[in-house]
Amino acid sequence: MKLWVLRHGEAQPRANTDAERRLTEHGREQVLFSAARLLGQPLQAIIASPYVRAQQTAALVREALGFTEPVRTAPWLTPESDPQQVITELERLGLEQVLLVSHQPLVGGLVSLLEHGHRQQPAPMSTASLAQLDGEWPLAGLMTLQGLHHCG
Fold this sequence. Notes:
Number of domains: 1
Protein name: Phosphohistidine phosphatase SixA
CATH superfamily: Phosphoglycerate mutase-like
InterPro entries: His_Pase_superF_clade-1, His_PPase_superfam, SixA
CATH class: Alpha Beta
Strand content: 15-25%
């Protein structure tokens, strides 16, 4: 399995609720920079948090890649979601090439859990950071971090 984990681009500091925060212009540029790393990858699904900034990030990536499937929205990808639940959901999906679009602290904890089997050292995921993990199964401690790319 190849799993890419993308944190949303830079978002506005405030909105009526955290879930309604939108990408800034800089955030949109960051997302396009990260999306370029996914060109040519045979993605089967783009799955995003329901929060506006993650939905906008996923839509930008989908458009940049010419990905024809709709973005899937998952309630288990919000900032405070449990990384173990994400792993359970990925196992249930049974896909081989997936992009997740979400938030901190979830993304840092998820990458650490998949790579090390624990969340004690979360991966440093800044806005629009993209992690690539490979492994037979999406199980704690059994995936290898192939790359962690940050926007310049």
